[in-house]
Amino acid sequence: IHMRYDTIIIGGGMGGLVTGINLLRQGQKVAVISAGQSALHFNSGSFGLYGRHNGEDITDNPLDYIKGLPETHPYSKVGIDNILKYIPQVKPLFEEVGVTLHGDEKRNHYRLTPIGMLKPAWLSMEGYATADSPAPLSWGKALLVNIQGYLDFYPQFLSRGLEKAGLKVESRTFTLDSLQHLRKSATEMRATNIARVLDGNVLRDVARHINRFIDETDATTVIMPAVIGMFDESPIRLLQEQVKVPVRFISTIPMSVGGMRAQMKLRTWFHQHGGTYLLGDIVTRGTIDGGRVKEIYTANLADMPLAADNFVIASGSFLSHGLEANPDSVYEPIFGLDVVADPNRPQWCDPDLYKEQRFEHYGIATDSSLRVSHKGSTLDNLFAAGAVIGGCNALKEESGAGVTLTTAFKVADQILNSKQGGKQ
């Protein structure tokens, strides 16, 4: 017995879902296999296209820098003409699933991080704290508002960073009776649990506290943790409407309410439009024959194979176990795909944590069509999207989301334009 699809995607994060959505739109039968959490669950609220080059921030025209990247970089494999085609499609796609993004590829803006730094970004979600330039900030006097007992928000770090950017800062905390049940354990006072409570009429109580603090401090900007809007953006807008001055949100550590909202919205759209989303399952192995992947097997389906004309690996890098390492080598755990990595382990990293770490460039080998390599030969029907691809340091470049999105769009195009991809 086979379960058969046009395309099977391994990895249910942003790269896998965006690939799947683009294939579904063209009438494909698509399955996504997701182990669970993806990098989106830890998202900052912003997406980077290309924010830093040789250690320096890029503000204007990040695409000019992308044009000059080496041919081994994922952006070079996507191709600048394709990047220019795909970028205008990103915001409409997210708007269709229910996620509002602000920003422009012609000029990066700056996002405020949870520890008070300002970093370049391409697109940011609704309500998040952003600025046109890192300093001086034109927000006037800032009021940092936290929930009593919430530990994943760092007012002292934020105060220090904002004061360096030219702002006067004051801090206040509040609590609500409706949050008391979460205080039984420190593990319950997390962003996602709080966001389930801070909705509807409860937000009026939150706004009342914040407006009182504004009167006390003469603040002109409120900054608070992004702990509202778990399921949609309406609570964000509702609070902003009820507070006297602009409210800006900061992503939290370790879970991101905005990132989880984006993940859920992408997944819901995919499922509602006919996609199969196998959550909580992992691919254990695949059958490769004649330069093609024939079928894959998962932990939950055991001996029942999943077959398709095309496959996509969007399993991420080390964080999500798309890549793994032992004392001797870096490897791709499902198919044993070829990996671009230094065989000499001492070269993998630098003892200085803040220096360039070579392992962050590692990933599976792909050709210019994003087809992967296995034992030195290209597989005709297995493509790669996102962080599993080697050739760049997304953290240093602030390019992770851009690489994921543009490779996802390209892989979908490659499949749809291949003989096997389209409906015959």
Description:
The protein is α/β, with parallel strands linked by helices. It has eleven helices and 24 strands. It has helices spanning 14-25, 62-67, 74-78, 80-97, 155-164, 191-197, 202-217, 234-242, 257-272, 394-397, 400-417, and strands spanning 3-10, 30-34, 46-47, 52-53, 56-57, 101-103, 109-112, 118-121, 123-125, 130-131, 141-147, 168-174, 221-225, 247-250, 276-279, 283-289, 292-298, 306-313, 324-325, 330-331, 339-340, 363-364, 371-374, 377-384. Strands 1, 2, 15, 16, 17, 18, 23 and 24 form an eight-stranded mixed β-sheet that branches. Strands 12-11-13-14 form a four-stranded parallel β-sheet, sandwiched between helices. Helix 5 links the parallel strand 11 (141-147) and strand 12 (168-174). Helix 1 (14-25) packs parallel to helix 9 (257-272), helix 4 crosses helix 11 and helix 7 (202-217) packs across helix 8 (234-242).
Compact description:
This protein has helices at 14-25, 62-67, 74-78, 80-97, 155-164, 191-197, 202-217, 234-242, 257-272, 394-397, 400-417, and strands at residues 3-10, 30-34, 46-47, 52-53, 56-57, 101-103, 109-112, 118-121, 123-125, 130-131, 141-147, 168-174, 221-225, 247-250, 276-279, 283-289, 292-298, 306-313, 324-325, 330-331, 339-340, 363-364, 371-374, 377-384. With 424 residues, it is of the alpha/beta class.
